[in-house]
Each structure stands twice: as structure tokens, then as C-alpha cells.
Write a structure and sequence with these properties.
By secondary structure, the protein is α/β, with parallel strands linked by helices. The chain contains nine helices and 14 strands. β13 and β14 form a beta hairpin. The longest helix is centred in the middle third of the chain and has 16 residues.
Length: about 290
């Protein structure tokens, strides 16, 4: 098995999938060609429980983007994510190395930072190590967990910056634990467009994910095949990129296999769309030769 590195420009069905608010659907005074493409990052947290499972979070039904959908932790890349301050507290991968992996001139590390920050904000997971011991953050102790929960609340309320938490706890962002695996770009048309980089990481020991009860209302560990079955029964609503990544995870038997495949950093594979059905297919799948690149 090999992990699918996806480079796809487009294909997000945003009306039927309720990706945007009703107010935005009624917008008619914007030029689709002038909608800015926002950088974004998301991370698939995987673990063996005991079979391969991935952390899924359900977004609040009233959120502007992807209301009610099941997603991976993630969000927009903030300007502050691409700063010298964050580069100074990130280890095991430089901005140059991160950018090279993504085919960028610079700024690649900001996507890793955003994915780590969003994991903490949305799921309460800190993908970092202690500066002194190089050990991962362990939140199994009650007092430590309470302290980090308070940090998280303050960050989500805008009363504390994420970088303050990292510095206060004398941590370093463990960029090496994050593996870049896919790139999805919203096609022209919707009033919101994203250039989203997808990462995969192993769930750290001693931590328990918890939804923030603001943007997300539920968190659950699920096997990829279970997600696909629920999707087929229309019990879960997934965005196209999320569904495609779940199908990729379903090729593996364990979190170890997923991480090993991601670490291999295989060549990108560009997805295509079957014109007759709109289905996204990868090399080797039925319809790929007849598919078109968007």
C-alpha cells in the first residue's frame, strides 16, 4: 500500500453539501473570478484503537463554513503563523524544507504551524515537545490537563495567543510529527475559496481530544471503512476532499503503515474528474484515463 499524495485544483460541491451559509448562497453581487484563495491547513490524526482509526469532528450546524459536516481539525493559515517567532520554536523542519515539500518558494512552515495550532484550538491536542526533555506533551495528569484546557479557552476567546502558550510551557512545535500528503484548491465559483494543505500525524500518547463546543460539537474516533459506510447511508456529510482522504486511509491497516507511507514522501499524483459522474478518481482507478483535470 502507498499513501496517495494528491494535487487537485478544484471540485468542491458547495451548494448541496451546505458548505456556506444561506446568506452567502443568496449573494449575487460578487465576481467569482475575484474571490481570493485563502491558505488553509488541516491534519488527519490517526491511531490504532486497536484497528486504524482517524479523529473526526462534526462542525456546528450554524457555522458559516461546512456547517454540520464531519471534518479533520484545521482552518485558515493566519498571517502570524508565517513569522520568525514561530520558526524559532519549530523543530526538525525548516521553512526552506517545508516549502520545498510543497513546491513553494517560501512560507511552507506556516501551514505546519497552522495545522498544529488548529489541532489545539479545535481538538485540544498539542503536537509539541518539551524543550528540555524533548518528550511529548502529556496531559494525562489532571492538573496539567486543566491548565491546558484553560489555555485553550483563552486562545479560542482571543484572550491569549497560541504562541504564548508554547512559550509559557517551554515547548517546541514538533513539525517532524506532521507529514504533508495532499493539496486541494476550491474551484472558481463559491464565495469562499481555499488552498488547503493536508497533513497526517500520529495521535500523541497521554492526550484526549475534545471538541471546542463552539465551531465543533462532537469528536469521535472512527475506522475509515466505518466512515465510508456511514457516508453511503447518508449518516455523515463529508466534503469532497475529506471523503477522498478517507478513501486513501482505507488502504491501510494501521497507523504505523500510514505514517511510514507518508514519511516516504512519494511523488504527487494528480486527481481527475469523470465528466459523466463528477467522481474524483486517482491513477489506477476506473475512469481515470477518461477523466479530466480541473
Amino acid at each position: 500500500n502507498k499513501f496517495l499524495r494528491v494535487e487537485l485544483d478544484g471540485i468542491l460541491c458547495y451548494v448541496n453539501a451546505t458548505l456556506i451559509s444561506n446568506a452567502e448562497l443568496c449573494m449575487s453581487d460578487y465576481d467569482p473570478a475575484k474571490v481570493a484563495i485563502r491558505p488553509a491547513a488541516t491534519v488527519m490524526l490517526v491511531d490504532d484503537r486497536p484497528d486504524l482509526q482517524v479523529l473526526m469532528m462534526q462542525r456546528h450546524a450554524n457555522t458559516v463554513f461546512a456547517g454540520g459536516m464531519w471534518v479533520f481539525p484545521g482552518g485558515s493559515v493566519d498571517a502570524a503563523d508565517d513569522s520568525q517567532e514561530y520558526q524559532a520554536i519549530s523543530v526538525h523542519r525548516t521553512d526552506e524544507e517545508a516549502s520545498q515539500l510543497m513546491g513553494l518558494q517560501s512560507g511552507g512552515l506556516a501551514f505546519y504551524v497552522a495545522a498544529i495550532r488548529e489541532s489545539f484550538e479545535e481538538a485540544g491536542i498539542m503536537l509539541a515537545i518539551h524543550k528540555e526533555s524533548a518528550g511529548s506533551v502529556d496531559l494525562s495528569d489532571g492538573s496539567t490537563a486543566t491548565r491546558f484546557e484553560s489555555y485553550r479557552d483563552e486562545v479560542n476567546q482571543g484572550n491569549r495567543d497560541f504562541i504564548e502558550v508554547v512559550r509559557r510551557e517551554d515547548l517546541l512545535l514538533d513539525v517532524a510529527a506532521m507529514h504533508y500528503v495532499a493539496h486541494w484548491i476550491t474551484p472558481e465559483g463559491p464565495p469562499r475559496r481555499f488552498s488547503a494543505r493536508f497533513f497526517v500525524a500520529r495521535m500523541p500518547d497521554g492526550q484526549t481530544p475534545l471538541h471546542d463546543n463552539r465551531e465543533t460539537v462532537h469528536a469521535e474516533w472512527l475506522a475509515p471503512h466505518t466512515i465510508l459506510e456511514r457516508f453511503d447511508r447518508e449518516e455523515m456529510v463529508l466534503m469532497t476532499p475529506t471523503l477522498r482522504m478517507i478513501k486513501s486511509l482505507a488502504l491501510f491497516r494501521s497507523a504505523r503503515e500510514v505514517i511510514e507511507a507518508a514519511e516516504a514522501n512519494q511523488d504527487d499524483q494528480r486527481a481527475r474528474v469523470v465528466p459523466s459522474s463528477g467522481e474524483i478518481v486517482m491513477p489506477g482507478e476506473p475512469g481515470y484515463e477518461q477523466g479530466v483535470e480541473n
